[in-house]
């Protein structure tokens, strides 16, 4: 097989210089050796890679296709060598992971701990962001991996399914609504709420939907996490809206009931997004594979 790394490098030199002679010079080969290698590649393929002209060569359509693949292979090799060299020197790699509230608090802790335990040379910078902001950061190359709700445009990114984020209402068992199994958001807008702190992405999400109904949520108190919201709901201070996973967990120790929100926006598909999986470092690919299989 003539598609070894030496031949691929030679091929790219010839493409860049437009000349087998100059390409051979860049590759530190004799013209005869370079010509033989190019000819061998063409014979293996069964098609010409170059159009020979009086003052040089130009790649054929097949040659242009090979140019793309050769560049990809060599770039990936360089990244691999860089990563391995860094590990050999004892340097730590970093993965910047952005995600929404549900992923951060309910899904990722259990998924990340095995990866971090088995990869001591990799650190994860984990930040909570709105899904729109996460997508923008991934597109701009400011983060490596994102976990977002499917309500945002992901057409520019490569995606993988992660899980479901169903929002539910949490109330005390003595609340007048405690017999309900399902409810629309607009039915509870006149109730007192126990909310999350100002600026919390999930609470901003709920506030936005309340505004669309022409009102604002009435908060008795605003707290920092789902468990605290559920605790206040248990004590009858107000109703809260949290991910179903959080409500189920809190129901094991608290006298609360959960009511499924029936609004379409209240059941969101969580999606892993990256710019290009193939271009990610090995350890980032490994992280994505592990959290996908959690």
Note the topology:
Elements: H1 5-17, H2 20-26, H3 31-45, E1 50-53, E2 56-59, H4 61-88, E3 93-99, H5 101-118, E4 122-128, H6 131-139, E5 145-149, E6 158-172, E7 182-183, E8 192-196, H7 201-212, E9 218-223, H8 226-234, E10 240-243, H9 244-251, E11 256-261, E12 267-274, H10 282-292
Parallel strand pairs: 3-4, 3-5, 7-11, 8-9
Antiparallel strand pairs: 1-2, 5-12, 6-10, 6-11, 6-12
Helix pairs in contact: 1-2, 1-4, 2-3, 5-10
What is the CA-CA span between the terminal residues? 40 Å
The biggest beta sheet is recorded as: 8 strands, mixed
Residues in helices, as a percent range:
40-55%
- pLDDT < 50 runs, ≥5 residues: none
Order of helices and strands: HHHEEHEHEHEEEEHEHEHEEH
Shape: elongated
Number of domains: 3
Strand content: 15-25%
Mean pLDDT: 88
Task: Provide tags for this entry.
294 residues; alpha/beta; Arc Repressor Mutant, subunit A; D-Maltodextrin-Binding Protein, domain 2; eight-stranded mixed sheet
């Amino acid at each position: 097989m003539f598609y070894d790394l030496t031949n691929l490098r030679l091929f790219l030199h010839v493409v860049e210089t437009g000349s087998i002679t100059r390409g051979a010079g860049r590759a530190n080969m004799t013209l005869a050796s370079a010509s033989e290698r190019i000819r061998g590649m063409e014979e293996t393929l069964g098609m010409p890679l170059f159009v020979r002209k009086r003052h040089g060569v130009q790649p054929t359509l097949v040659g242009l296709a090979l140019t793309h693949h050769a560049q990809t292979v060599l770039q990936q090799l360089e990244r691999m060598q860089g990563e391995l060299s860094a590990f050999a020197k004892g340097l730590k790699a970093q993965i910047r992971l952005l995600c929404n509230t549900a992923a951060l608090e309910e899904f990722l802790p259990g998924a990340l701990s095995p990866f971090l335990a088995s990869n001591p040379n990799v650190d994860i910078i984990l930040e909570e962001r709105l899904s729109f902001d996460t997508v923008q950061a991934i597109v701009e190359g400011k983060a490596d991996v994102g976990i977002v709700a499917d309500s945002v445009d992901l057409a520019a990114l490569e995606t993988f399914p992660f899980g479901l984020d169903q929002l539910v209402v949490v109330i005390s068992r003595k609340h007048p609504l405690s017999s309900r199994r399902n409810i629309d958001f607009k039915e509870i807008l006149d109730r007192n709420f126990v909310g999350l702190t100002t600026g919390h992405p999930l609470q901003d999400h709920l506030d936005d939907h309340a505004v669309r109904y022409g009102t604002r949520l009435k908060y008795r108190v605003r707290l920092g996490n789902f468990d605290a919201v559920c605790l206040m709901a248990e004590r009858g201070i107000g109703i809260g809206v949290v991910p179903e996973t959080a409500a189920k967990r809190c129901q094991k120790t608290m006298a609360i009931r959960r009511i499924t929100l029936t609004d379409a926006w209240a059941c969101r598909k969580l999606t892993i997004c990256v710019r290009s999986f193939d271009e990610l470092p090995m350890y980032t690919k490994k992280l994505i594979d592990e959290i996908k299989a959690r």
